[in-house]
Design a protein that fits this description.
Two copies of one chain form a homodimer. Chain A is built from twelve helices and twelve strands. By secondary structure, the first copy, chain A, is an alpha/beta fold. The longest helix of chain A has 16 residues, at 76-91. The structure holds a DNA duplex.
Chain lengths: 341, 341
DNA sequence: AAGTCTTGTGGAATCGATTCCATGGAATCG
DNA sequence: CGATTCCATGGAATCGATTCCACAAGACTT
């Protein structure tokens, strides 16, 4: 289809130097004269030379590629995270191989194996499940790795996570102050650290602020929107339904919202709703949604920074970013008619 | 950090065959005996061998990597598209290198150069601008390429696009039937084919259904949400403001929505609003948003299918997917008080 | 029974860069 | 001024797979 592609030898020949010198110029090695730098640059421009990344990586064992493993890019939280990480990586000259695990462990492993084969310089992962064999393989090989958003128990890897506890505690306190006693919680999957931590925080705060500890008030979702719908449906159908709902991530909040709308419940009046994760348009809803917000952009940037430190052979401290409640109109006062439309 | 990594020679030695035979087994070459297949497989498993993708690509000139160039992964439309394409590619054994051009031509070129250096097997791009030099370089090198969502005039590459015309025409007709005469249009950037096509469709339909052709009713945005806000603000401030707004993509519709909310305008009553692109939660708004919908998942899948055909040396026909109006409550009847809150 | 065809195999060349090593000339030193 | 360092350079080895080529041994022809 195309002719034989242009190699560094062609560049070297045109510039009148050896390929060793051409290589040194291209990689910014200081042991080059101004004259050869200039001649090589001219030859590169004339031939529109693009060095073969495979050949370079094979010899130098640096690929300038990082692997980013997320669970679902369609979740706006992960889209923002991917965007932030990818832009931060690009600024450091690294390109990003994206893997969507789709909340599926086999698919996660498939991508991790690919990352190993591609000899990526590092991996940023929002992992799930416990001892994934591929995850262990990544670490055994000494591939620099950081966790983002989520961690895995028993695996000691630097991470950037959110302190969900503070935000959730604020949310529960806020609801309690409004007079809510029965708060339904739509939990994330217990195979993820965020799913487990947020549930623990919720339970602890519920106890602290005197909310009902009825286990029926917790529904286990999977962080995807359909489970938010069915969760809300289930909770509203209880003999003693809650007067407020708290969803552990934004897609499940969207699902819950759909159910509430379908049932004709007025949010903030008939039923309070709070979502974990802020999304631009949550404030545009009528009424605007009360949320637990955290800085996703910082999370992505920080993950790249930590990964670079690990690549440089250091062992950086993990970073925990704060979360905070942003009160909007969806979490109004509990009144006696609540929950009984 | 790690010991010398495991190569195919180690596998071959353990299996008691030559590396040539080991390679044949690994790549599924039929010229192998059952016995060596079995022995190599055992050795691979025992050593947890992951072939070096660089070495393989260098020799075979196949990388099994495709480049996906989008403008902004935070736009839900592109997130859905990325997800669909990535999953379809994975099913074919291809992994995806993601590039976010961020609606910036230099960054688009940066990624295209990276794709060339990485010797990707193919490129799926939602391009912008006209003769990007890097885009020309990609095509000159004969790298299989398909366009998705957008095209570039004068570049003959198979593409998957949406027939915006039918949906926009339906939307304009719908608004005209409701009695609207002045419809504000928040256009996309005219450096993109979708921005241009949709504006043309809108103008043509406006003429056909007798809407005002006042050029002040068109505001040029950039497909990002902030420009939707300022666009709506600008249009509402006209001496003769519109009674309905049509936004050329969903982020701009979200921005317009924010402005309408801030001004206290009731959507569907004080001001009609229609968005191009359907997003899950648009139907959850109060009132639910009327949208022009198209099948993003099919677009992603089709792009991968076309790319595979190009890689196989064929020249597939471009695909145009339909769009259609989905009427919800945000596009109500025009009444005399409209536009004068 | 002798020649032709298959089939599986191993040795060695190859892909395109980087990098080790040796070298020659200029610069610096005592 | 001779010895030593420094610098830029080119030749050749190297990274780890794939693939060309030659070859041996068995399966078929006629």
């Amino acid at each position: 289809m195309t002719g034989p592609s242009i190699t560094i030898k062609d560049v070297a020949a045109l510039a009148g130097v050896s390929s060793a010198t051409a290589s040194r110029v291209l990689s910014g090695n200081p042991a080059t004269s101004a004259e050869s730098r200039q001649k090589v640059a001219a030859a590169v421009a004339e031939l529109d030379f693009h060095p073969n990344a495979q050949a370079r990586a094979l010899r130098s064992t640096r690929t300038n590629v990082i692997g980013l493993l997320l669970s679902d890019i369609r979740n706006p939280f992960f889209a923002d995270l991917a965007h932030a990480a990818e832009q931060a990586a690009l600024a450091e000259g690294l390109v990003t191989l994206l893997g969507n695990a789709n909340e599926s462990i086999p698919q996660q492993d498939r991508y991790l194996d690919t990352f190993i084969s591609q000899r990526v310089d590092g991996v940023i992962a929002a992992p799930q499940g416990e001892g994934s064999s591929s995850l262990r393989a990544v670490l055994e090989r000494g591939i620099p790795t950081v966790f983002v958003d989520r961690t895995v128990d028993g695996i000691d890897v630097p991470s950037v996570t959110t302190d969900s506890d503070s935000g959730i505690r604020q949310a529960v306190e806020h609801l309690a102050r409004q007079g809510h006693e029965r708060v339904g919680y739509i939990a994330g999957p217990q195979t993820t650290s965020t799913g487990r931590d947020r549930l623990k925080s919720f339970s602890r705060a519920a106890r602290e602020f005197g909310l009902s500890a009825d286990p029926a008030l917790t529904y286990f979702g999977d962080f995807q929107s359909a489970s938010g719908s069915t969760g809300a449906h289930h909770l509203l159908g209880l003999a003693q339904p809650p007067t407020a709902l708290l969803a552990a991530d934004s897609p499940m909040a969207v699902g819950a919202l759909a159910t509430l709308n379908r049932k004709g419940l007025r949010i903030g009046r008939d039923m309070a709703l709070i979502a974990f994760d802020d999304i631009e348009w949550f404030s545009l809803l009528d009424p605007p949604l009360t949320v637990i917000s955290h800085d996703v952009e910082a999370m992505g940037r920080t993950a790249v920074r930590l990964l670079l430190e690990v690549i440089d052979g250091h062992k950086p401290e993990s970073v925990v970013l704060p979360s905070e409640l942003i009160v909007r109109a969806s979490s109004g006062t509990a009144d006696p008619s609540l929950g009984r439309p």
